[in-house]
Amino acid sequence: MPVTPAEQALLEHYVKKILAAPVYELAVHTPLQPAPALSEALGNRILLKREDLQPTFSFKIRGAYNKLVQLTPEQRAMGVITASAGNHAQGVALAARELGISASIVMPSTTPQLKVLGVRNRGAEALLHGESFPFALAYALELARQTGREFVSPFDDPEVIAGQGTVAMEILRQHPGRLEAIFVPVGGGGLIAGIAAYVKYLRPEIRVIGVESQHSACLQAALAAGERVSLPAVGTFADGVAVAQIGAHGFEICRFCVDEVLTVSDDQLCAAIKDIYDDTRSITEPSGALAVAGIKHYVAKTGARDQVLVAIDSGANINFDSLRHVAERAVVDVF
Length: 335
Prior knowledge:
Elements: H1 5-20, E1 32-34, H2 36-42, E2 45-50, H3 60-68, H4 73-78, E3 80-83, H5 87-99, E4 103-107, H6 113-120, E5 125-128, H7 133-147, E6 150-151, H8 158-174, E7 181-185, H9 190-202, E8 207-213, H10 218-225, H11 248-257, E9 260-264, H12 266-280, H13 290-302, E10 308-313, H14 323-330
Parallel strand pairs: 2-10, 3-4, 3-6, 4-5, 7-8, 7-10, 8-9
Antiparallel strand pairs: 1-2
Helix pairs in contact: 1-8, 1-9, 3-5, 3-8, 5-6, 8-9, 9-11, 12-13, 12-14
């Protein structure tokens, strides 16, 4: 379906914001790394965008810093508050510390201890509330109303989306040649919205494919319904994407820029964590392995061969004591 003039203007708006985003004052350029064993196994060239190598071990630092650095002096003086399953929390905590801003962060009570400590060690206040992200979000919004602190959305904010979109800017500069598809993990939609806006404006022939946990597939549900829907419950194994409703700003882009959304199981995520380890000797958290699990599912479904496929390796914040479960489930033949 052709892009309308209004949609094209929206993409141009975001591309300008992405190009101007000062994220490299804190974030780093991450490598686009070949995955030789996975490539051989799948019969395609697989490249991993190593966002697990960011200072907070997740891409979230990009959007968090881009939002905070643009706050007014008055907003900075009041401080910020956010809700997060952990990775955005650490990004906000680090960005706030660097910018001299007080930060309070509401996290679900099920958040891995590693992420809670990551917030507190970076000087922010971590408040544990609710069993999943939607409960933490509602509490954080209420605290923002009570205290006057600026609420920093983990995904539903144009500045956050633009910050995450710098991932796509790097990919296209690192790999200017043939590229069939980019697979993007999806929680609240900030990352895929930023990537899709940039890619579809500059290289519309490249497919942008979202990958969700089957236990929190809020973008797939929204695209099927033609509007944002709220899931009645979400699973927390892939805690970084345990979101019940796709963000409004992100959905505005995703509804015409995302080519397909795949869902994967917890066992498929565990297998993908092993695949990434085998090729990189790095350990990815479940939500960080979504894109690789999605590529494996896509290749099995379509029979794709000799294509260039990029997976966003989005984060590495996993509790050490979870690794036994991952190792046990990784051996299950799920494809």
